[in-house]
Model the fold of this input.
Amino acid sequence: MIRPIMKNIMFLAQKSEPATQDDMQVVRDLLDTLKANEDGCVGMAANMIGVKKRIIVVNMGFMNVAMINPVITSKSGQYETEEGCLSLVGVRKTKRYENIEVEYFDINWKKQKGKFSGWTAQIIQHECDHLEGIII
Done:
């Protein structure tokens, strides 16, 4: 189901709770909502649809990938950039890392490890910030 985009800064500033297998409908709703907003959005966190769970979805060019309870375990190559967000107006400066490693559960609830760089790494970092209540 496509859900409305949360714009309440007080809600977005709260930390998200770990997701469980009972949260798979949230994963599906998040994927549907990202697809519906793909013209202006490349990633989303569950709090952007009003759910404080540690779930993100990221456009990887050829498909949208769900990451459940993602943890960035390694990062290198810090740089400064500007980002926008569907939940916020305008763009803001932020620091990101060129290369990251992430551990997460996939949509089939299998543990995954991935190395990401460039634009995909930037999207993942932005969405993981959402999970921590960090607003760019």
Summary: The two ends are 27 Å apart (CA to CA). Strands lie at 43-45, 55-59, 64-84, 91-105, 111-117. The chain has one domain: 9-131.
